[in-house]
Design brief:
- It contains 16 helices and 14 strands.
- With about 425 residues, it is an alpha/beta fold.
- The protein folds into two domains: about 110 residues, Roll (Urease, subunit C, domain 1), CATH 2.30.40.10; about 290 residues, Metal-dependent hydrolases (TIM Barrel).
- The protein has an eight-stranded parallel beta sheet with strand order 6-7-8-9-10-11-12-13. Strands 3-2-1-4 form a four-stranded mixed beta sheet, with no helix packed on it.
Length: about 425
Amino acid sequence: MPTKKIKPKAIIHASELLTGAGIRAKDGRRILEEDTGRIEDGAIVYSDKIEWVGKTRDLPRKYARAPKRDLKGQRAVIPGLVDCHTHLVFAGDRSEEFAARCGGASYEEIAARGGGIVSTVKATRAAGAAELETLAVARLREAMAFGVTAIEIKSGYGLSFESEIKILEVIKRLKKRFSRMTIKATFMGAHAFPAEQSRESYLRDIMTRMLPEIAQRELADACDVFVDRGYYTIEEGRAVLSRARELGFGIKMHADELADTGSAAVAAGLGALSADHLLKVNDDGIRALAASDTVAVLLPGTAFYLKASHAPARKLIDAGAAVALSTDFNPGTCMTLSLPSVMTIAALYLGMTRSELLAAVTYNAAKALGLHARKGTLEAGLDADFAVLPFRKFEEMYYRFAWSAVRGPSALS
């Protein structure tokens, strides 16, 4: 049965329209202001794909009768935001841990007391799939209200075959419910180790039971491993990711967050989609990322939340790495879905420019999910993923620190 053709619509008189065309041309590296593709009094024609972008005065005659939305020079249009690293499906509350950390307890100290990931695992295992889905639906709607049109959701709060599958099945249902949003699922059973199982036994379960079952049921697009001090070793991470790649998954790595383990260079060497966190990345890791297609995904909201030193964004950018930003939304170390607030932190503490920020939450973030061939910029033939801001200029998104999305998705649509 032929697909019904969607009639084009137009948005006209945007105060500014940022295509990001130059960002794509440079593959997200060493971005300058001119790469934003800024068009004053911009217009865009779209159906399911972008059909045309330019100045309103140059709108082609063939679109003269297309339904039009006039922004009257009061609102800007940018590519839809991509939140490329979240742990969105979980149950439970860890506000007490946040209070303890504010009182001086470290991330590792809290974990040693039975808190941290283990605490969320307990609550998530106890929750039914319907409860997890209800919680996740509210969170996704909040993310959309900030202009997010594509998002990654990791498992990892199950740490058992049954619970990891439960989380991934919830994500699969979310994909069906949120048809206007692109959702990528990442299996992260290698997030920590379950208390009831030996390290060796759990690793064997991941590689011989979980990964093959998840691949067979098509429940995940990628596999991630937390390679860091106190968690998975380089050798363990390499083994899990190599097995995942054999089964057709994209691969990702939580790298060099708590300690300099050299894992960023390993991720680049394995051809990972991304190496994430990178607070402690060394110079060899920076060079490896710059020489590879692996995106450096920085999560400054997490460093802010943990009162930790930030990742060396300027060294990564200046070396030629493709740098993305994400919320790392999770219950323990970054309880926010506001990607604009993360951009504010990146502007102030990572020294990132306006154009670098745009690249980091659009094209580079899409690349971290393997979506950059069809998303991340506003150009003819690409997916019609865009955000109409409630502001006249893009930089107001992060200049207005912690602005409210309570007006709902209509504020950015």
